[in-house]
């Protein structure tokens, strides 16, 4: 079983990375057999969708554009669970994350629902506001892709501004502990 986390932050060692690492630790504690991998969007080129629909015309399992999306998309197809992590920038997910969602989502639809029945979970690093909007943006991919959404007992997020601040958020780790346990529970039931 494989869990892939995609980090939409431009800071490879920032709060979003730290939240993903906490979540991965919980998953490994629950089941050491689960393989985890984090992909950083920082430094990658992911353009917005051109609405060319070549993915539908060619029935290709990749996007027509030649940037870094296709490599990440292939990892998403391989994964049993996909975590989308993003900081909140101007009230929503980062631009690169939104580009990934629109393009990977469309290519998956063009390929008979390539993400169907995979597990999806949103993970958010925020300072003040925009957590709910970012939650909606990230979860939208899961919903329209017929994925099973894993949740905790509240929004899967940590609060902080500077790298490391989310580790001081007293609710972040308990929230991620529940999320990690729920992901492992779902994996044990959905993946054979």
SSE blueprint:
Elements: E1 2-7, H1 15-30, E2 35-40, H2 54-58, H3 69-78, E3 81-87, H4 95-110, E4 119-126, H5 131-144, E5 148-149, E6 157-159, H6 172-190
Parallel strand pairs: 1-2, 1-3, 3-4, 4-5, 4-6
Helix pairs in contact: 1-6, 3-4, 4-5
Structural class: alpha/beta
Considering the protein shown, what is the CATH homologous superfamily? Answer: Flavodoxin domain
Q: How many domain regions?
A: 1
- Please give the share of residues in helix: 40-55%
How many helices does DSSP assign? 6
Low-pLDDT segments: none
CATH topology: Rossmann fold
The total strand number stands at 6
**Overall form:** globular
Q: Please compute the radius of gyration using only Cα atoms.
A: 16 Å
Major β-sheet annotation: 6 strands, parallel
Would you give an account of this structure?
It is a single chain. The chain has helices at 15-30, 54-58, 69-78, 95-110, 131-144, 172-190, and strands spanning 2-7, 35-40, 81-87, 119-126, 148-149, 157-159. It has 192 residues and is an alpha/beta fold. The chain has one domain (2-190): Flavodoxin domain (Rossmann fold), CATH 3.40.50.360. Strands 1, 2, 3, 4, 5 and 6 form a 6-stranded parallel sheet that branches. Helix 5 (131-144) links the parallel strand 4 and strand 5. The model has no long low-confidence stretch (mean pLDDT 95).
Short description:
This protein is α/β, with parallel strands linked by helices and 192 residues long. The protein has 6 helices and 6 strands. It has a single domain, classed as Rossmann fold.
